[in-house]
Design a protein that fits this description.
The protein is α+β, with helices and mostly antiparallel strands. It contains 4 helices and 6 strands; from the N terminus they run H-H-E-E-H-E-E-H-E-E.
Length: about 150
């Protein structure tokens, strides 16, 4: 168990997430994965629908995203909330993620991110990562919006 101040832990997790987002935007795969556990579980927007398990499998998912992002896509944190305990933390965020045209057409559209972290060897590591976009297409019988 850690005896650190929860505010310090929350700040450390915030810093980790902002570093991760900058690495994603820069297309720096090593830095994107630097703070993930070996047994990370990721549920992402693209397939596979049952997610990917393990750092090596997660590594394989990034090149296609980086190829798309090279066309000038944004990837930036616009809202972030962090809760940290002694050895476990979680965070949720909203990110602007899209090409210039996509952001112009839907300026409020956000990528939703949820992270589960655990302290390993005295540092915070991402053990679970979940990305999603709000459903924008009609589904029979489903009422969208508020």
């Amino acid at each position: 168990m850690s005896a650190t101040d929860p505010r310090d832990d929350e700040a450390a997790v915030r810093d980790l997430i902002h570093r991760w987002a900058r690495a994603v935007h820069a297309g720096d795969l090593d830095d994107v994965l630097a703070d993930h556990t070996e047994d990370v579980v990721v549920f992402d927007v693209p397939p596979p629908e049952d997610g990917v398990r393990g750092l090596d499998a997660h590594r394989e998912t990034w090149p296609a995203f980086f190829d798309w992002q090279r066309f000038g896509a944004a990837f930036e944190v616009v809202e972030l909330s962090v809760t940290a305990g002694a050895d476990v933390a979680w965070a949720y965020a909203l990110l602007r993620c899209g090409t210039g045209d996509e952001v112009a057409e839907h300026p409020g559209h956000r990528l939703r991110l949820t992270l589960g972290l655990r302290r390993e060897g005295g540092r915070w590591r991402v053990a679970h990562e979940h990305h999603s976009f709000p459903l924008r297409r009609a589904v029979p019988g489903l009422r969208l919006g508020r």
